[in-house]
Amino acid sequence: MNSPKDILDHMGTGLLTVNPEGKIAFANVCASRLLGWKTNELVGKPLSVVVKDQFFDAANPFRREDLLFFRKNNESFPVECIHAGGGVITFQDISERKRVEDQKDEFISNLSHELRSPLTIIKGAIWNLKDGIMGKLTEKQAKLVETTSRHIDKLSRLVEEVLEISRLQSGKVQITRRRVNIAHVIEATIGDYHMAAKEKYIGLKADVAPELPPVYADSDMVEQVLHNLLNNALRFAKSSIVITARPADNGFVRIGVVDDGLGVAKEDQPRLFSKFEQLQRPQGVPGYKGTGLGLAISKEIVSHHQGNIWVESDLGKGAAFYFTLPEYDPAADFRFMLHGAMKEADRRRVPLALAVLSIDNLRSAKGNGVLHKIGEALKEKMLRKKDMLFRYTLKDFALILPDTPLDGANIISGRVEQFIRAGLQESPQSGKEPVIRSGIVLYPNDATSAERLIEIAFERTNGKIQNFGGR
Amino acid sequence: MKSLLRGQMEKFRILVVDDDVDLVKTLRMRLEFEGYETFAAYEGVRGVEMTLKKKPHLILLDLRMPAGSGQSVLKTLQANPDTEKIPVIIITAMDDPRLETETKEGGASAFFRKPYSIEALLEKIRFYLPPKP
Questions:
Q1: DSSP state of B4
Q2: Beta carbons of A356 and A438 less than 8 angstroms apart
Q3: CA B113, A343, B44, A102 torsion: positive or negative?
């Protein structure tokens, strides 16, 4: 029987245990091999020799993250790291996985270029023919050119959709999430379909609950999901399509596209959101055939928003496609912006600073208005174009400072503090004097995740993080 | 517009810079049909030379090309007071979503991803170079 140490040493996964002081207490053979230290050299060293990020937090276990670990020779490598509690950290080298992902991205990017270029030429040539640039076409020639043109458009659409689903699945798609009023998105999208619905004698209307909370989403992407669902509904509806929007459980909003068409058989429903699945068209009814990717793309988009998409239908009784989107959350919005700035800093290999300024002893209602004005004035008069200022909570400003080292961030934060102080003095309040506390963190030096950067910045203001969820 | 003062018969000149000969051919055919005078360059460096020589009123610029990328052409044109005001419309098949912001920040007037809609492209061109009576 192998001893527990034998078992740990024969694992294909690196394992480190860390004592409450943050020092390494044990390293298995795999860990020492991956990190380039002898096991006894590692024992007693702070975890920070291996990982610069403040990943290990005894009070906050069960975290799984992709991080950069450092070898003895200071060379970094990507790992998938799990802190399962009890000071036990396991990690795996994912260099190979990252390399394959990068290769796949490059392949998709090259493929898209190679497919789009000839399509552009074919499209251009067909349009030249269609518009009579090469002389007037006979009726038969014109029909042939028209058919070709329609299929070129379909091929272009297919190419874009295949590329889009690859991008979505590889997580390389650029999603710009903002506070979005879903009623406006529905209104904008539905406008494109009134004509087509009228031609088919289909009633098309929106039914949006009053005072629906805003959602946190990329509005172009939500529009795309609605377009996909509306296109389908328009193909199958008999006489009516209704777009609904209602508050849902757990801070989500539910949007639905409901038609009175043939519906989808229960056994077909699970396959609907897979790639290249075509909805069963009514027998003998010609018409626009989809690419079979619309619902798969919609599913990817909705998952990127942490939402769900599903269908409720009985054969012969119409179909209701629903998807959910999370309500707007200012803290999530800020994390997202910070994450984007971190990615840009990586790409340009420049430092990034985050400064937090907390203001205490403010009278809530009046103070809120004053801080709002100060924030606007700061943006206009003091900050650089690239800086991003947020009201993180009612009493905190968070400032993302791209391409800024620590000394620069200190100077800017100091000036901002003076500016806020001056602004507050202009609108004196009764009661205690307002107190401003600031905290600065640097990416990637202090941490490599947006969440940790924010936590540390607030810790450095010597305060506790309040209203962290923002709602 | 200044050029409109120069005799009604003179056509607006458009320079197409793209390494794809067939694309340039179909595009020029269309632009000439629309009443523009066109020139072509198949390399970035040549695109800059042609701009200085032919003084086009508008440039259609590809990004991925041999001998000088579209980005470097744009940078060179923006750095020269004689060429910085010429509207440059990017036409590219490249996938990177950051390119649009980058090139617009670099001075490009518009951005089209291939395969673009010819109608949308013509509309943009007409915005800068309105058809002459």
A1: G
A2: yes
A3: negative
Q: pLDDT tens digits for A210-224?
A: 989 999 999 999 999
* Residue that is written with structure tokens 């991956």 in the block: A34
Summarised one tens digit per residue, pLDDT across range A276-302 is 666 555 544 444 556 678 898 999 999
CATH hierarchy code of domain A332-460:
3.30.70.270
A463 has a pLDDT exceeding 70:
no
Please give the domain boundaries of chain B with CATH numbers for all domains. Answer: 10-111 (3.40.50.2300)
Q: In this model, does residue B1 exceed pLDDT 60?
A: no
Distance CA A373, CA A385 (A): 18
Position B23 confidence tier, pLDDT thresholds 50, 70, 90? very high
| pLDDT value of position A306 | 86
Which of B27, B95, B116 lies closest to A109 in CB terms? B95
Reported as a single tens digit per residue, the pLDDT across A396-413 is 889 999 999 888 999 999
Residue type at A91 in one-letter notation: F
Half-sphere exposure of A129 (CA within 13 A, CB side): 18
Judged by DSSP in three states, A329 sits in coil
Helix (H) or strand (E) holding A358: strand A352-360
On chain A, the residues whose CB falls within 8 A of the CB of B94 are 109, 112-113
DSSP output for A365-412: HHHHHHHHHHHHHIIIIIS-TT-EEEEEETTEEEEEEET--HHHHHHH
Nearest to B95 among A113, A119, A128 (CB): A113
- CA atoms within 13 Å, Cβ hemisphere of A440: 18
Fold assignment, A4-93: Beta-Lactamase (3.30.450)
Whether the upstream peptide bond of residue B97 has omega within 30° of 0, thus cis, is: no
Spell out the residues 6+ positions from residue A104 whose beta carbon is closer than 8 angstroms to its own.
A170
Determine the Cα–Cα distance for residues A96 and A279; give it in Å rounded to an integer.
39
Q: Please state, for a pLDDT cut of 90, what percent of chain A lies above it.
A: 32
A112 chain-B contacts, CB cut-off 8 A: 93-95
**A179-326 CATH fold:** Heat Shock Protein 90 (3.30.565)
Question: Are the C-beta atoms of B50 and B42 separated by less than 8 Å?
Answer: no
* Closest Cα in chain A to B98: A174
ipTM of the complex: 0.83
Q: Which of B20, B97, B98 comes nearest A117 by C-beta?
A: B20
Distance in Å, alpha carbon of A153 to nearest chain B alpha carbon = 9
CA distance B123 to chain A (A): 15
CA-nearest residue to A160 within chain B is B115
Please state the separation of Cα A132 from the chain's center in Å. 46
Instruction: Look at the alpha carbons of B49, B52, B55, B61 in this order and tell me if their dihedral is positive or negative.
Output: positive
Report whether pLDDT(A430) > 80.
no
Among chain B, residues having any CB pair with chain A shorter than 8 Å are 20, 22-23, 26-27, 29-30, 33, 64, 91, 93-98, 113-116, 118
SS3 A126: helix
Sheet holding A352-360, edge to edge: A388-393, A396-402, A352-360, A435-443
